[in-house]
Amino acid sequence: MLTQFEMDIKPIKTDTDYQFALKRLNEIFDAPIESPESDEADILALLIEDYENKHFQIGPPDPIEAIKIRMEELSLKQIDLAEAMGGTNRVSEILNRKRKLTIEMVRKLTNKLNLSAETLIKDYDLVV
């Protein structure tokens, strides 16, 4: 007769539950595939992800961070954005938050970086 592995998995409702789940996942993370511990790890990962999505929401990046992220993804340097932003000095000013993006820059960067205009027109603080 087959016996079924019983897991003591409960919903993550508190920070204590969350910390316990993280600790347990760390203990069984490298369990052999298709083992009871591997199944437990899969379920714990889903519960942890759900808890984190509800309690540790990360908002979208501001326009400057979005540009920097995309530059890194595309392996671009500041010089690569010079034409779209009006020169290398202007790129530096924008990326160092000394100057705001203009509508014309937003239009060009939307095409060059494949970012949405909605992302690029959001307000952000300048460094004074």
Question: What does this 3D model show about the protein?
Answer:
GO terms for molecular function: core promoter sequence-specific DNA binding. This is HTH-type transcriptional regulator / antitoxin HigA. Residues 67-120 form the HTH cro/C1-type domain. The chain has 128 residues and is an all-alpha fold. It folds into two domains: 15-55; 63-120, lambda repressor-like DNA-binding domains (434 Repressor (Amino-terminal Domain)). The protein has seven helices and no strands.
Relevant terms:
core promoter sequence-specific DNA binding; Cro/C1-type_HTH; 2 domains; Antitox_HigA; 434 Repressor (Amino-terminal Domain); mainly alpha; 128 residues; HTH-type transcriptional regulator / antitoxin HigA
CATH C-level of the largest domain: Mainly Alpha
Unreliably modeled segments: none
Give the N-to-C terminal Cα separation.
Answer: 73 Å
Largest sheet: none
The global form is elongated
Name the structural class: mainly alpha
Contiguous helical run count: 7
CATH architecture descriptor of the largest domain: Orthogonal Bundle
GO molecular function: core promoter sequence-specific DNA binding
InterPro entries: Antitox_HigA, Cro/C1-type_HTH, Lambda_DNA-bd_dom_sf
Pfam family, one: HTH_3
Protein name: HTH-type transcriptional regulator / antitoxin HigA
